[in-house]
Amino acid sequence: MNSDDPKAGTAPATCPMSGARAGGPMPSGSATPAMTTGAISKPAPAAAARVRSSGSNEPRKTLLLTGASRGIGHATVKRFSAAGWRVITCSRHAFPEECPWGAGPEDHIQVDLADTDNTMSAIADIRERLEGGSLQALVNNAGISPKGHGGERLGALDTALEDWKTVFQVNFFAPIMLARGLSEELTAARGSIVNVTSIAGGRVHPFAGAAYATSKAALVALTREMAADFGPLGVRVNAIAPGEIDTAILSPGTEKLVSQIPLRRLGTPDEVAKTIYFLCTEASSYVTGAEIHINGGQHV
């Protein structure tokens, strides 16, 4: 599993494009990307290059992505940026000054999705930053899965009630809060919403805790409800359910699951990002209410 753990301490902020952590060097071989982010309180004026896609007279499309700092989120930033999209990232961490991502500090919003008031304030901030009052894609990728003191899985009997509440706020309530708060902008663009669920939402997983798994199962049901309610507005809503994805924060023992996967390997963040991109483009214009499994056949 590759979700953030709220009990693991405060991790250093990570550049969405390069993977660099605050205070550390840029990874070798990192290309200087076309755009950057930074946490500020007020939106800065948009650069002229942002208004139009490269080599096109069409307005540049915009993605709002939560949980952008690593793993699947990191790969999603790179995939959409490479296609010429403006990417607005949301994270509970401030943006690292070392990051070379050059489009401007207005493209990163520091928000604690576990805090409802902070989330509502962020929604108002996002609406101010959206050019033309439209949003082509919302990807709800942020997720948390608390662990025990030794990193062990927390089941239904030993997960504290406060942890249940926090997990559901981040994994379940924040996605619908963002979608509802930005519904006018999504409608204006006839946009797409992608909720990132998990293989753990459909089966008991050896690493994912009970609260995490239950929140992801609820998010699958919410995706169907949202597809029905947002459909008449011209907004599509789908989900992707990653399985074992090869990221820097794999749970110990993940390699033992490879033999149970029909394709006999872990997935890559880029494979997940490509599927997210598909669901946000015209290639999937008649797909809504679906949950796409990205797990090498692990669910069969």
From TrEMBL:
Biased composition (Polar residues): 29-39
Database matches in Gene3D superfamilies: NAD(P)-binding Rossmann-like Domain
InterPro entries named in the record: NAD(P)-bd_dom_sf, Sc_DH/Rdtase_CS, SDR_fam
PROSITE patterns, alphabetized: ADH_SHORT (PS00061)
One Gene Ontology MF term: oxidoreductase activity, acting on the CH-OH group of donors, NAD or NADP as acceptor
SUPFAM superfamilies with a match to the protein in the record: NAD(P)-binding Rossmann-fold domains
Positions in coiled-coil regions: none
Domain of life assignment: Bacteria
Region of interest: Disordered: 1-61
Family statement: Belongs to the short-chain dehydrogenases/reductases (SDR) family.
Database matches in PANTHER family: PROTEIN FIXR, SHORT-CHAIN DEHYDROGENASES/REDUCTASES FAMILY MEMBER
Name recorded for this polypeptide: Oxidoreductase
Species name: Hansschlegelia plantiphila
